[in-house]
Amino acid sequence: MIRNSTNRRLKTTTAACLAAAVCVCMSTGCQSTINGQTLPSPYYLQDDVQYFPSGPEFKLPREAAALRAARAQEKLDRR
Fold first, then answer.
1. Can you tell me the distance from the alpha carbon of 32 to that of 23, in angstroms, rounded to the nearest whole number?
2. Which pLDDT score is estimated for 31?
């Protein structure tokens, strides 16, 4: 009787772990990383291509102008 209960519990636990593993595998995304390579999804040929044009080379022009103005004002204040 005890052996039958233990055997049933082992089967139930194994089935639950297997179901959880399948759920985790199904919910992980399309890309996979294998040996340091990021491999695309199998549907990458049907994916839409997104194009982002390049922006300005220097990203902080207003901050640079403000710093130059502050330095110039500081030089005028020293005199």
1. 16
2. 63
